[in-house]
Sequence to fold (225 residues):
Amino acid sequence: EAQVTQNPRYLITVTGKKLTVTCSQNMNHEYMSWYRQDPGLGLRQIYYSMNVEVTDKGDVPEGYKVSRKEKRNFPLILESPSPNQTSLYFCASSFGGLYNEQFFGPGTRLTVL
Amino acid sequence: KQEVTQIPAALSVPEGENLVLNCSFTDSAIYNLQWFRQDPGKGLTSLLLIQSSQREQTSGRLNASLDKSSGRSTLYIAASQPGDSATYLCAPLGAGSYQLTFGKGTKLSVIP
Fold:
């Protein structure tokens, strides 16, 4: 089944404890991205990647890191999480950039205490 | 910077009614526009993708239209069903951009 998977789905952590949220797609998509969704603010892009080893900042990259060493994986790294990073996170991918349909993962609900 | 507005923010209709959801955007230089559906606690599902050269796209009971010059798109849902209850988001892709800009969505409730 063609899909985007994220792990973990739920995570409660404490301030300053490094964490990684994984994202993987099995559709051989070039483009992948990360969003966060907050009440009243909607979906905002954190980082995106046009292909392997090509990443760039979105609208809200502060406090996040990404890497794209393999085409299928695009992990989101929080080196020192803070409470303002409590949010619902989504990974998305698409074939050939943003010109085609975006496929979203199921989301990761992160709480930073 | 592109700004996307979806009105109304919430809508409640009885089952069987036809309805229209609205999306407006400030920068008409777009490459395409997507409509998504989001169920509570879940990810987004792409419903329709309209290229800038198209006026309409249809999928089953859904029809999306695009008027680029006026910065508007509508999503028409025919014969609504309780299973259509969800939040609907639109997202235009700016020409030359590498990111979608999302509206805040319209929360639809279809009452049996």
